[in-house]
Automatic annotation (TrEMBL):
Residues 20-169 form the FdhE N-terminal domain. This is Protein FdhE homolog. Belongs to the FdhE family. One of its GO terms (molecular function) is ferric iron binding. Keywords: Cytoplasm. The gene is fdhE.
């Protein structure tokens, strides 16, 4: 075990057209864009109240990112294929400092009912907060009271999104393989993003925790790798900005956001605001293989 900051940088291919397996996040830019997009999407939306709450939460994550008070660099085993996975970071509780800061910032911004939830969460012991955080990262969402999940995940995400770029810079990029889960932290993606850089039409999955994007070939199921039983849906327009890829092998689906068609789009915000598409896919017998950090539904 060693501190990630002590490991030499991995230089990789510097060609501007080289396919980059991993795209490191810039948390401040991401949170700023996400907050702006949530504010826009809230206008006239039946989800307006919830979108505004999420906008306040993301704006608070931005404050944390700008403050840069994340403690010492995490101690990691960089020889492992997914260095920030829970298996290697379950005893790292520095993120709890971010949780308390986030909850304190949010308390005066929310309605009374939500403020009550925040006070309950603040009153829990650090051990209980940490246990809930680990349960969320394991995908055991039902082990955590639903009213706490949004805030716990936001603090976890702010913490690990800060450290992920440093870890990526020290990973052996050549060894990164196409995978359904984030190669950096092992979390589920939010959705697919179709990018125009470094080359047109590349698909990247966006991590729900550390905000990393990783390359995944198109016309292949992001959940089970099947390439023979895929369908691409667009419910209003075949050239829609948001389309859905379904797989009849695993009966899963993921949304694809064509951000070049509308640069205002943001993966977490637009996935959340397009819940009507999820309802239609559920009616057709498909299940999401992704996770939105602003909508942590309990597993069946």
């Amino acid at each position: 075990m060693t501190f990630a900051s002590e490991i030499p940088l991995s230089l990789g291919d510097k060609s501007p057209l080289a396919l980059k397996p991993l795209l490191a996040a810039k948390p401040q830019d991401i949170y700023r864009h996400r907050a702006e997009r949530l504010e826009t999407l809230a206008e006239g939306s039946p989800l307006a109240d919830y979108l505004k709450l999420c906008r306040s939460l993301v704006a608070t994550q931005l404050k944390l990112a700008e403050a840069q008070e994340f403690g010492p660099a995490p101690e990691l085993d960089m020889t492992q294929p997914i260095p920030l996975s829970l298996q290697y970071t379950d005893d790292n509780h520095y993120w709890l400092v971010q949780l308390q800061s986030l909850l304190s910032e949010m308390l005066p911004l929310v309605p009374a009912a939500v403020a009550g939830v925040i006070r309950e969460l603040m009153a829990l012991t650090p051990e209980q907060q940490a246990a809930y955080g680990n349960s969320l990262r394991q995908g055991h969402l039902s082990d955590v009271p639903a009213q706490y999940s949004l805030f716990l995940w936001a603090a976890l995400s702010a913490y690990w999104a800060h450290w992920a770029p440093m870890v990526i810079s020290r990973m052996d990029i050549a060894a990164v393989k196409q995978t359904a889960l984030c190669p950096v932290c092992g979390s589920h993606p939010v959705a697919s993003v179709i990018r125009e850089e470094p080359r047109e039409g590349l698909r990247y999955l966006h991590c729900s925790l550390c905000e990393t994007q990783w390359h995944y070939v198109r016309a292949q199921c992001t959940n089970c790798d099947d390439a023979k039983q895929l369908s691409l849906w667009a419910f209003d327009d075949h050239q829609a900005n948001i389309r859905i890829e379904t797989c009849d092998h695993c009966h899963g689906y993921t949304k694809m956001l064509f951000v070049a068609k509308d640069p205002r789009m943001e993966v977490v915000a637009d996935d959340l605001a397009s819940l009507g598409l999820d309802s239609q896919l559920s009616d057709k017998g498909y299940s999401a293989t992704t996770l939105n950090p602003l909508l942590l539904a309990h597993e069946s």
